[in-house]
Design goal:
The protein is built from four helices and no strands. The chain has one domain. The termini are far apart. Helix 1 (about 15-30) packs across helix 2 (about 40-55). By secondary structure, it is an all-alpha fold.
Length: about 90
């Protein structure tokens, strides 16, 4: 924990990374996704977490968009998202 009234950094503990993350989330929600339903907010946050956590490769080099897309595809294979999950509606079967 860092008390900003006393100090801003204590060893490796600081809030800059978290402040950077939320700045990117707010920019994404206000600029890219103009209308966000509260029901889907966790999905937008998951997307931003994926982008933030996969900015660099193991050697510390920035990931290219193609590499990030390949990583995403490897993690989505075999998973299914149904229309009812996306819309939050229950399926009505006659």
């Amino acid at each position: 924990m860092v008390d900003h009234a006393v100090e801003y950094v204590r060893g490796q503990v600081h809030t800059n990374g978290l402040e950077n993350f939320w700045s990117l989330v707010k920019r994404e929600l206000k600029g890219t996704y103009i209308s966000v339903e509260p029901f889907h907010l966790f999905r937008y946050l998951d997307e931003q977490m994926f982008r933030y956590n996969n900015r660099r490769d193991e050697e510390g080099e920035p990931l290219k968009d193609a590499d990030r897309f390949a990583l995403l595809c490897s993690q989505v294979a075999g998973r299914r998202l149904t229309w009812n999950e996306v819309t939050g509606k229950n399926a009505v079967v006659d």
